[in-house]
Structures are given as structure tokens and as C-alpha cells.
Amino acid sequence: MNGSTLSLLSLAPLVYETSMDYMYDKDIYSPNQFNLTNSSEYSNLHRFVIRSLSVYALILVIIGTLGNLLTIIILCRRNLRRYVTMRYLIVVSICDIISLYGWNLNNFYKFTISSNNNNLEEVSMVHCRIMSYMTFVGLQLSSWCLTAVSLDRCLSLYFLTWKHKYGKLSRVKYHIAILAITCLLLNSHILFFNGYYIDTLKKTVKCYATRTNIHYIFPQWERVHLVVYNLCPFIIMLTCNTFIIYISIRSARIRMTRRMTDASGKVSTTSTSRHRQLTIMLMLVTFMFVLLTLPSCVYFVFFRHRMPSTSDSRTFRHMVQICLGSIQFTAHAINFFLYCFSARNFREELHGFINELCCKRTSDFKSNRLARTSIGLTTFRRTKRDDNNFDSKTTLNHECKVDQTQRKLTNFESKDELNDGNESNSD
């Protein structure tokens, strides 16, 4: 086997389509088009980047899952769940966990676990439809819950009656339900039409396509997803955050000119500080979300189809897409650290949760230790009491035996005396 054949075989497993790659790309890896020198150089770089990003995808899954679970626990505590913003952020954390186990986990499975570089979605038809459906829904619902937070804060500042009529805490569950139902219904067609069997006997699945339309998901539904997931939320977040920044700056100037020193002024200052913390946290989270997800959106919409379809450019394009995907899913794994950095009340609740957890473990350890000690003392007391009872019973039995012996001796002596008396009378 010559060198060119070895080069082709070593590169082939890494050029399959992924869920992030469009389905209608040309197959440009025929032997007639191959430049052996360039393919060898790009193959090494390709392997290194793909393997590194596959490990990074697993790190995102682990850190993102733990961070979002801890975020849900902290936000559900009594002091934080009474805020409207925190209710939305709880749903964001749930959706972020779901989204990390979709395309992001597929990168790790495809290039690290699978020997044939197969997609995780193509394990079965159930995997294909459920994973793709949950990924689309999780990403879109997470984006729109962040958008709802920004919109709620903006409307509360613009309309003074919004908070008392439509932005009350009791109405948040209805707003979240409307967003969730909308995203679920919008992507419901994926559960029925996505994927088909290439080989019915071997159960070989082709995902992100239908038997009559290979462009069903990529690029057709992908364009709708980019508009719903990136463009519309980006426009709303940008508009709302710009207005919030303007109001915050104007309020800061008013507070600088009107400093209040009475008791009511202190209460107002405390309330203002709390709202300022929520505003800073919200702006930081939405800014990082837009910053990390917008490059992927811009690339797929404006630059994806302008790159030349050659072997070298396709290798480079494949690496760029996975890099942008890793950056995109980073936004769904770091919110816990953003909350810790920007919100003092979140840090205080986290500190209180850790203290309660440590104190509970310490109290449980002490209670178990005291229980073992009390059991030992009770056992010792019972043993001592039993020994005392045994000694008293032994003494009593011994005294009874002595009395019986003495009584027998007395009876025997009386009998002897009686016999002696009878003998003397007979004499």
C-alpha cells in the first residue's frame, strides 16, 4: 500500500458531516482532487483541534451540569426565589443543562468514543428525534427566558404600573409556560419527520434529513433556528439593555444630587442597591450570552456559503464551525460563575448554603457519635446492673443454703438429744 492510500485512509474518518455542518456540501475528498502534502499538514492540525475540542466539550458538560444544578438550588432558596428575575433564571439553568447534552456532547462522542466517528444522534431513531428536539427547544427557551428578564426589567422602568399589573411574581409561571409551549410547538415537527432508515434491516439511521428532503434541518430549519435563537433575542436584549443603562445612569446622577440622610433615605438606598445588583447581573449575563452566541450566528448566516469549496478551505471551515460551536455552548455553562461574580446576594446565599451543609454534616456526625456513646453507656450500665443482680441472687441463694444447712443440723441435734433421752429412760 503506497503513501497516498495511507494518507487518504488516515484522514477519511475525520471528514464526515456533523450536526453543525450543512448536508448539501460537496464531497470534495475524491482521490483526483487531493493534494497529498497539504492534506497531510491539515490532517494533523485537524486531528489536534478536533480532539482538543472534544475533550473541551466533555469539560463543558461536567462544569455546566454541576454549575447549573448548584444555581438552581441557590435560586430556589427563600431569599432569592421571591424575585421575578430569579424565577426566569431558574428556567434558564434547566434549559442550559438540556442544551449541553445535545450537539455539544455529540462532539465528544463522535471524535473520542465512537470508533467510526458516528454521530450520537444516529445511534437510533429515538436518539435522533429526541436529542435534536430537546437541543432546539433547550437553546431557544434559554434564549427567550433571558430575553424575558431583560424585557421585564425594561418595562418595569418605562411603565410604572407594569410591576403591579403584569410583572407580579404570581404571573411569572404563566409567562414561562407561554414561552415553553411556544418553543415546544414550534419544534414539534422534528419529533415526527426528522430522520429516516437508510437500511431497515441494519437499522441504519440518517438524522437531520427526511427521505424526500435532505435539506430538511440543515440549512432550512437551521435558518429559522438562528432567527429564533440569536437574531430576535439579540435585538430585544440590545434595545432593553441600552434603555436600562440610560435609566441607571440618570438615576445615579439624581441620587448624587439628592442625598438623603434620614431613615427613609437609608431604606431607599438599600432598595436601590439591591436593584442595582440585579441590573448589573442581568446586563453581564445577557452581554456574555450575546457575545458568545453571536459569532456563530453571523458566520452561519453571512459567511458560511462564501468560502470556496476546496479541500483545504473545507478543512479550515470544519474547524471554524466546531470552534464557534464550542464558544456558543460555553455561554450555557458559565452562568454560575457570572452570578457569583456580579451578585452579592447570590454569593451570600451560596455561602449560607455551604455553611448549612457543613453544619448539618457536623451535627449529624456529632449526633451519631453521641448516639454511639449513649449506647455504650447504656450497655455498660445494663451489664453492671446485671452483675449486681447476679451477685445479689448468688448471695441470697448462698444464705438460703446456709439457713437450710443450719436448720438440718439443728433438727439432727434435737433428734440425737431425743434419742439420748429415750435411752436413759430405758436404762
From TrEMBL:
It is found in: Membrane. One of its GO terms (molecular function) is G protein-coupled receptor activity. The keyword Transmembrane helix applies. Pfam families: 7tm_1. The chain crosses the membrane at residues 53-76, 88-105, 141-162, 174-198, 226-249, 280-303, 318-341. Keywords: G-protein coupled receptor, Membrane, Receptor, Transducer, Transmembrane, Transmembrane helix. InterPro entries: GPCR_Rhodpsn (IPR000276), GPCR_Rhodpsn_7TM (IPR017452). It is a multi-pass membrane protein. Residues 67-339 form the G-protein coupled receptors family 1 profile domain. It comes from the Eukaryota. One of its GO terms (cellular component) is plasma membrane. Belongs to the G-protein coupled receptor 1 family. This is G-protein coupled receptors family 1 profile domain-containing protein. It comes from Adineta steineri.
